[in-house]
């Protein structure tokens, strides 16, 4: 488990799946991912959203950079993954805290000599106490004890359904190219 923080926020990321397990507002020790039922976690999905084809959950992630308020983890294809998803790829996810904002960036590189179609997801479950309002490139979340936040991105389609804030991007990466996808969660 990797923990990053500043004076306002603390975030814990599990190397298994690069999943965010805690998002804590330090002023009142409120964890946005915990409710009376238990602890939730944010799931990274790549190259597909379904569990069976989500290599982000199956392959090992490696911590490649760590600072007080940021951590980067990398995922690289394997011979086993290539048999089911015939592309050579690298994925790096960086969690970085700046003030009251958590910035999440995904750097994807297609090392294949053919175009690579894929889905990239950042799936954040929330308890029944949370509500969301969808705006252009933004999800405004209001929750228990007057806690709120905003998920914003121009790279992901943002939606709230079944008590999950889903940030999903479905696209194709050209052969031997790379691209960065970004989203932010601002705590109010």
From TrEMBL:
Stored InterPro entries: Aldose_1/G6P_1-epimerase, Gal_mutarotase_sf_dom, GH-type_carb-bd
Highest taxon of source: Bacteria
UniProt-listed Gene3D superfamilies: 2.70.98.10
SUPFAM superfamilies per UniProt: Galactose mutarotase-like
GO molecular function terms attached to this record: carbohydrate binding; isomerase activity
A biological process term (GO) from this entry: carbohydrate metabolic process
Name recorded for this polypeptide: Aldose epimerase
